[in-house]
């Protein structure tokens, strides 16, 4: 990589300010175009037939009666999506999940789809598709699925990561182990040990906008897809692979996005819409209902986690161990592995061992959700850390500070840390006014820490300077959390012009090189590097143009504060040339002025946060209410602090919902009982206090401005912070998330005999 | 330059059950190529499933990254994010 990403300590003019968000007016006035807002002339409406069974063999599908319905133009089943995955297990799982092949693996699994001239015809046709199922035994619970008598979902799954490879298939797809030192010896040295098992229930990202797309396949092999996604280039590749299209002939345009949080990193229905369009030779619009989003798009894992931590009386942790079982839906995933990697990442441990077990169950295919897998691991570990601090008689913050990781610590997942923010966030929590504020009756305070890796990736950006000196940035990472604003600030910083003179847009897949999707908190981290690089390339062009305009050698032109300057005194007292001056002459100095950048942004800085929560519990009903909440997190550098604070608050809000109310509830029949926002309760404004934030800035040494990702870490501590607060409020250790009123009441009743 | 590369547990069965493999490499690309040559079974995971941690910094794509003297190098699973 030719771009030098090394951190340079400098002062800023634009970065760190809080201009108005560029997409704000459109969003609040309803002008913003989301996935379902796109339409094409002659488009058909698609509906998907879904399995009512948690586990069933598909013996036959007869579509003849449905095809006869007036207005029906195409019906597809798995037969219309042949297996082109060439042994790629991950891609095959995506294909099978989009349209069940031999078996329906969960309630809601797609088995057929219809494209018709309107909703009425499409729905009528769905009712006339005859599917002959052989219902099979199912299992949805994470622990039940690991028992010897559990129904085996896939006879081809033999647990990987154990030696020797098992001879019998099971629902444990993989075992992954991390750690260092000797935990047995470490526990021998401990004066006190806490050992407990924890469970968390499955949740959904709960994005407000359902999945939506319009697909249009042309007879010449070209195709277009307008879609709500976190990564249109990745969707293009997945869809091209699954349909046998050439990637360059499939043009994917991303819409404005009404939330994704990881759930829109994965194709669910888009290949089906393309298959319908190909068969019908018409554009096809497919919008999932809320019920379909819950039943058939990726939720989190449900988990079962055992934790054991030992410490000396002085508060030094001597050993830590965890076994983490995560559901991945019906296909193998790496969710437990991520939990095993992140679980003890906040601490400097001499002996640590974590084991992650991936468990397949008859639930929807798990997708990433904001720092995927880390919140559940943090819930278990931070609960045990809190319990151990209480047992030792140490303050919960002091205990964590004593054991916190720092620069040079060997992390529990392997690498040695560079400069990191866990210690500073804990020190900030210790002195934060929230920590010493008095508590009311039936109130408890909890705190917890969290970690997320962050990552970068492939990025391509164009920066074009118009004749009037204003600037357009075309980026290929979807703006999920405000990157258009942050990138405009960064371009303004580099070029030395006003934020208001810059417009950032998301380019489609045919107008820009490949970009990884917006995940791993990489949006601003990666694309800011490409924007800095593109801006510097444009400045180089402007230096050349200034040299031509002045008719002086290039080496005598330098760039400073948005202007080309003639160096020294030999060129007379020339007035500096602004971007506008140079742009106005572009047509006569060589044509359009642009800067391009293609790079790999690597070296993302790991991220840590500490949260503090006060909660009030009604001992009669078990109902609880968060009364105060504080987020302290290291941003590296907050490019647009208001957006950073918004990310902190959003993650905390989602974590609060996860901790207190949200859960997938399955009946005995394996069917989801609550696929809607009335029965699956996410927090609304009136449920939440103002969430206070404190931004720390410990620069990432691998970014010119010190930027780390900020989008995900904020959802990691809330489960634990809230569980610790509730446990402190009621005097009972709460070990099963969500802490819904019935669960709190049951714990209280049990404690009171 | 000789580098000790630590493999994550899932890779070890593909590399004669070695936890640490010593290879001669100046860059991540050379390191991965050497591992593939020595253990052909590693070629498949290296194609799209690995990230490489060099002195604590995780690289997912930048295989041109030079390896400093005495670098701590780990092969990790490529991470998913939200």
Structural features, described:
The complex is a heterodimer of chains A (753) and B (82). Chain A is built from 21 helices and 27 strands. Chain B is an alpha+beta fold and 82 residues long. Chain B has a single domain (2-77), classed as Ubiquitin-like (UB roll) (Roll), CATH 3.10.20.30. In chain B, 21% of the residues lie in helices and 28% in strands. Chain B is built from two helices and five strands; from the N terminus they run ββααβββ. Chain B has helices at residues 28-38, 43-48; strands at residues 2-6, 20-24, 50-54, 57-59, 73-77. Chain B has a five-stranded mixed β-sheet with strand order 2-1-5-3-4. In chain B, a hairpin with a 2-residue loop joins β3 and β4 (57-59). Classes of the chains: A alpha+beta (753), B alpha+beta (82). Chains A and B meet through β7 of A and β4 and β5 of B. Chain A: One of its GO terms (molecular function) is iron ion binding.
Structure annotation, total helices of chain A: 21
Low-confidence regions of chain A? none
Q: Could you give the distance between the termini of chain B? A: 37 Å
CATH topology type of chain B:
Ubiquitin-like (UB roll)
Which descriptor suits the 3D outline of chain B? Answer: globular
Brief rundown of the structure:
The complex is a heterodimer of chains A (753) and B (82). Chain A is α+β, with helices and mostly antiparallel strands and 753 residues long. Chain A is built from 21 helices and 27 strands.
Question: Which short descriptors sum up this protein?
Answer:
heterodimer; A: 753 residues; alpha+beta; Aldehyde Oxidoreductase, domain 3; Aldehyde Oxidoreductase, domain 4; 3 domains; 7-stranded mixed sheet; globular; B: 82 residues; Ubiquitin-like (UB roll); 5-stranded mixed sheet; 2 helices; 21% helix; AldOxase/xan_DH_MoCoBD1 (chain A); iron ion binding (chain A); Molybdopterin-dependent oxidoreductase (chain A); Ald_Oxase/Xan_DH_a/b (chain A); molybdenum (chain A)
């Amino acid at each position: 990589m030719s771009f030098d990403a090394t951190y340079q300590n400098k002062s800023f003019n634009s970065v760190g300010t809080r201009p108005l968000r560029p997409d704000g007016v459109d969003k609040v006035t309803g002008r913003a175009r989301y996935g379902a807002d796109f339409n094409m002339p002659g488009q058909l409406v698609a509906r998907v037939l879904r399995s009512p069974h948690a586990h069933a063999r598909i013996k036959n599908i007869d579509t003849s009666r449905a095809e006869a319905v007036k207005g029906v133009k195409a019906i597809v089943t798995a037969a219309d999506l042949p297996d082109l995955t060439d042994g790629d297990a991950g891609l095959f799982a995506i294909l099978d999940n989009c349209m069940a092949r031999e078996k329906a693996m969960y309630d809601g699994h797609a088995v057929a789809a219809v494209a018709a001239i309107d909703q009425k015809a499409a729905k009528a046709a769905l009712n006339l598709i005859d599917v002959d199922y052989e219902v099979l035994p199912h299992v949805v619970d994470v622990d039940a699925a690991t028992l010897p008598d559990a129904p085996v979902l896939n006879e081809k799954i033999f647990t990987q990561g154990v030696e020797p490879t098992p001879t019998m298939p099971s629902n444990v797809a993989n075992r992954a182990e991390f750690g260092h030192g000797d935990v047995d010896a470490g526990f021998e040295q401990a004066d006190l040990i806490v050992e407990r098992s924890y469970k968390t229930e499955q949740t959904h990202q709960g994005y407000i906008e359902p999945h939506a797309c319009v697909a249009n396949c042309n007879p010449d092999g070209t195709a277009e897809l307008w879609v709500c996604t976190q990564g249109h280039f990745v969707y293009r590749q997945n869809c091209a692979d699954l349909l046998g299209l050439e990637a360059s002939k499939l043009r994917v345009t991303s819409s404005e996005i009404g939330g994704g949080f990881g759930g829109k990193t994965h194709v669910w229905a888009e290949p089906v819409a393309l298959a319908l369009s190909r068969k019908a030779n018409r554009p096809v619009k497919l919008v999932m209902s809320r019920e379909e989003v819950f039943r058939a798009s990726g939720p989190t894992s449900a988990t079962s986690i055992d934790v054991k931590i030992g410490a000396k009386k002085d508060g030094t942790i001597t050993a830590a161990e965890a076994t983490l079982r995560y559901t991945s839906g019906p296909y193998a995933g790496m969710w437990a592995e991520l939990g095993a990697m992140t679980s003890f990442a906040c601490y400097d441990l001499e002996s640590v061992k974590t084991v992650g077990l991936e468990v397949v169950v008859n639930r929807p295919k798990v997708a990433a959700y904001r720092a995927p897998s880390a919140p559940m691991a943090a819930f278990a570990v931070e609960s045990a850390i809190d319990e151990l601090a209480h047992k030792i008689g140490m303050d919960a913050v002091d205990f964590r500070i004593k054991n916190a990781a720092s620069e040079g610590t060997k992390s529990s997942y392997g690498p040695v840390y560079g400069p990191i923010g866990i210690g500073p966030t804990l020190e900030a929590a210790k002195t934060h006014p929230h920590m010493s504020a008095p508590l009311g009756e039936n109130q408890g305070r909890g705190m917890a820490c969290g970690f997320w890796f962050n990552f970068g990736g492939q990025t391509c950006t164009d920066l074009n300077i118009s004749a009037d000196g204003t600037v357009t940035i075309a980026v290929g990472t979807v703006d999920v959390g405000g990157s258009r604003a942050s990138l405009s600030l960064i371009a303004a910083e580099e070029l030395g012009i006003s934020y208001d003179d810059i417009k950032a847009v998301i380019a489609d897949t045919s107008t820009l090189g490949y970009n990884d999707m917006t995940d791993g908190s990489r949006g601003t981290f990666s694309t800011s590097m490409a924007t800095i690089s593109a801006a510097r390339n444009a400045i180089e062009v402007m230096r050349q143009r200034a040299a031509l305009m002045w008719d002086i050698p290039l080496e005598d032109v330098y760039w400073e504060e948005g202007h080309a300057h003639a160096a020294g005194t030999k060129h007379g007292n020339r007035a500096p040339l602004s971007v506008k001056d140079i742009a106005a002459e572009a047509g006569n100095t060589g044509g359009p002025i642009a800067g391009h950048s293609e790079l790999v942004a690597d070296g993302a800085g790991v991220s840590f946060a500490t949260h503090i929560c006060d909660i009030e519990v009604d001992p009669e009903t078990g109902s609880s209410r968060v009364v105060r909440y504080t987020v302290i997190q290291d941003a590296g550098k907050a490019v647009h602090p208001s957006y950073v604070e918004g990310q902190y608050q959003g993650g905390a809000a989602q974590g609060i919902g996860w901790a207190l109310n949200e859960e997938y509830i399955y009946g005995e029949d394996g069917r989801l009982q609550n696929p809607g926002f009335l029965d699956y309760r996410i927090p609304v404004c009136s449920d939440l206090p103002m969430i206070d934030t404190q931004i720390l800035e410990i620069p990432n040494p691998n970014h010119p401005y010190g930027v780390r990702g900020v989008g995900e870490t904020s959802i990691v501590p809330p489960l634990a912070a809230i569980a610790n607060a509730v446990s402190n409020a009621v005097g009972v250790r709460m070990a099963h998330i969500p802490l819904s009123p019935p669960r709190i009441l049951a714990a209280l009743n049990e404690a009171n005999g | 330059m000789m580098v000790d590369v630590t493999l994550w547990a899932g890779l070890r069965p593909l590399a004669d059950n070695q936890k640490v493999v010593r290879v001669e490499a100046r860059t991540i690309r050379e390191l991965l190529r050497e591992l593939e040559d020595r253990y052909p079974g590693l070629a498949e995971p290296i194609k799209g499933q690995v990230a490489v941690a060099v002195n604590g910094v995780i690289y997912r794509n930048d295989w041109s990254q030079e390896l400093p003297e005495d670098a701590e190098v780990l092969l990790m699973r490529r991470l998913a994010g939200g």
